[in-house]
Specification:
Elements: E1 4-9, H1 15-24, E2 30-32, E3 35-40, H2 42-51, E4 57-66, H3 70-78, E5 94-99, H4 106-124, E6 140-145, E7 148-154, H5 176-184, E8 194-196, H6 203-212, H7 233-246, E9 255-259, H8 262-274, E10 281-285, E11 299-302, H9 313-327, E12 334-339, H10 344-348, E13 354-360, E14 363-370
Helix pairs in contact: 2-7, 3-4, 5-6
Keywords: Methyltransferase, RNA-binding, Transferase
GO biological process, one term: methylation
GO molecular function, one term: methyltransferase activity
């Protein structure tokens, strides 16, 4: 089967998680800023699309070269074997970006790349005039970084964060892959309690439940490359069947989400039911300060409002104070709170064990981590 150079794109700060996910899938990779690079065939592409929880897209690298003139860009693009990828009727929009490169006009780079591909395909398919572009879609991107050109083909379609279960969302929703990243960055294991006190539409709890049941995040959707004539449908069917066999639907999870807004609790419940996890999560309308528990060694993950709008700051800081008062007695629990407010620790009234910078879209945020005490190790059995 044909081998490709493949890129899994990721938000800034999440590349290492994507790299770990790939290695856990048995795929060796190299992590760089905003991406993980690996090699494989169509089955590898199908596996990455189906299983990666924290990535944005899976792209094939069609070609790489240096270009400092538009003539170079045209000729080197035209020299690539486009007929191996694009059928005669392919729809192939070309996006672009340029950073620290001689060719800085993105629109010109896009137009010349497109023109070069059309020129090659017209010669190969003996078509003169416009190509029909009436068939399957093949989204391309020409990216220039320090005069190094990379042309990629998107295999995913709508971003991987679109799992297909969010029927409704709240006012400031967290993307599903960001929610999955928050769960991965905790010490949570599926045999321990998990709690989101400001659950909104339930995304963090649902992502935790998907991990707890070992359900592939992409099982509920299709991917763009499945429409391409050179992608064998049997490969995706095989990968989906293997994923279904790996899922543990029977395990009982202790996951709870609460929110002060009863309407959001209904939304969260509907979203969980849409993906078949309605019985795996308990959603409850409740004020944050009313949370008490006798359970131990649990994990709290919260993405509270950031108070970005005028007049909200004071209310949000009061919420942070309530978090500190409510969670401080829970010595064995680990708490992870995501916020863009760098004064969070002042209001929570405790220094974080560790902080991690993450980008929620374009917004810089910090994950404030408060680690609970570890459970005692089980005594080793003495050897007779």
């Amino acid at each position: 089967m044909k081998q490709f150079k493949i890129i899994a794109t990721a938000a800034s700060g999440m590349e290492a998680l994507v790299g770990k996910e790939l290695r856990d899938l048995g795929i060796e990779c190299q992590v760089e800023n905003g991406k993980a690079i690996f090699h494989g065939d169509i089955e590898t592409i199908a596996t990455a699309n189906l299983w990666l929880r924290t990535a944005d897209r899976i792209k094939i690298v069609v070609g790489e070269f240096k270009a400092v003139t538009f003539d170079e860009l045209f000729e080197k693009t035209k020299a690539l074997p486009w007929e191996d990828i694009l059928p005669m009727d392919a729809e192939f929009p070309v996006a672009g970006k340029s950073l620290k490169s001689t060719l800085f006009s993105i629109s010109d780079c896009q137009a010349i790349t497109k023109k070069a591909i059309v020129s090659r395909l017209s010669e190969v398919y003996h078509r003169y005039g416009r190509l029909p572009e009436s068939g399957a879609k093949f989204p391309l991107e020409v990216a220039l970084l320090k005069d190094h050109v990379t042309i990629t083909l998107d295999t995913t379609g709508p971003s991987l964060f679109k799992r297909g279960y969010r029927l409704e969302k709240g006012g400031a929703p967290l993307k599903e892959n960001m929610a999955a990243a928050l769960v991965m960055l905790t010490s949570w294991r599926k045999d321990r309690p998990f709690y989101d006190p400001v659950c909104g539409s339930g995304t963090i709890c649902i992502e935790a439940a998907l991990m707890g049941h070992n359900i592939a995040p992409g099982f509920n959707r299709e991917f763009l490359c499945e429409q391409w004539d050179w992608v064998d449908a049997a490969i995706f069917e095989k990968v989906r069947m293997e994923a279904d066999a790996k899922a543990d639907y029977d395990i009982e999870l202790d996951i709870m989400g609460s929110d002060i807004d009863g309407k959001m609790i209904q939304v969260a419940q509907r979203n969980a039911e849409e993906i078949g996890l309605g019985d795996s999560i308990v959603f409850k309308q409740m004020q944050l300060k009313d949370f008490t528990t006798e359970k131990e060694y649990g994990v709290i993950v919260a993405n509270p409002p950031y108070g970005e709008r005028l007049g909200e700051e004071e209310a949000v800081q009061q919420l942070y104070r309530e978090m500190g008062e409510t969670y401080r007695p829970l010595k064995t629990w680990s708490k992870y709170i995501l916020t863009s407010d760098l004064t969070f620790e002042t209001h929570y009234k405790a220094r974080a064990t560790k902080k991690r910078k993450l980008y929620n879209g374009a917004l810089r945020t910090d994950l404030f981590q408060y680690w609970g005490t570890r459970p005692p190790r089980a005594p080793r059995e003495s050897k007779e």
